[in-house]
Amino acid sequence: MRIRGSGRPFEDMLRVNDWEVSMTQEQVVRAVFQAYTERNRAALEAIVAEDFLFVSPLDHEIDRAKYFELCWPNSEEIQSFDLIHLVASGEVVFVTYEGVGRYSKRFRNTEVHTVKNGKLHRVEVYFGWEVPHPVPQGEHRDKP
Q: What sign has the CA pseudo-torsion 55, 9, 75, 95?
């Protein structure tokens, strides 16, 4: 599934006849990616829990404020996401995606999201792939 800006206000997706709509874990994760492609920080802030923690190879359990300070500016670089795998298991959602950034540079990551009561509480990011893969098929590259 490709996620690009929908042209529809994000907040409208969370309301039906002025009633708040409870999203499934999968819908919360899709909403995260949509907020990035639409550069809608308010929408993302609405679903990120106050006790949110973010983990990646570069970040060790940074809090919500630090996440928005360090990670949100990346939204300016994102053109789209193709969600390759999206699987929920209880409160945990596993997602592998290919993103397209500025100058059409493609990348592939896997993330593990923890969603409780419609709020995003934790994200673990595993990244490093380039698309297409820089190492020839069937080959191994030693340390650079």
A: positive
pTM of the model: 0.81
| Domain 2-131 architecture | Roll (3.10)
What is the spatial distance between Cα 84 and Cα 88, in angstroms, rounded to a whole number?
A: 14
One-letter amino acid for residue 144 of the chain: P
Q: Which range (97-101, 114-118, 129-133) has the least confidence?
A: 129-133
Among 124, 47, 41, residue whose Cα is nearest residue 78: 41
Rounded to an integer, what is the distance from CA 35 to the centroid of its chain?
9
| Domain residue extents for the chain | 2-131
Distance CA 110, CA 62 (A): 18
